[in-house]
Amino acid sequence: MMSLANFPLSIQFLFFTLFFISSNAATFQIQNDCPYTVWAAASPGGGRRLDRGQSWTLQVAAGTAMARIWGRTNCNFDGSGRGHCQTGDCGVLECKGWGVPPNTLAEYALNQFGNKDFIDISLVDGFNIPMDFSPTTGSCGPTRFSKFFKQRCPDAYSYPQDDPTSTFTCPGGTNYRVVFCPRGSPSFPLEMVGSMSDE
Question: Which first-to-last residue range defines the signal peptide (predicted)?
Answer without folding.
Answer: 1-25
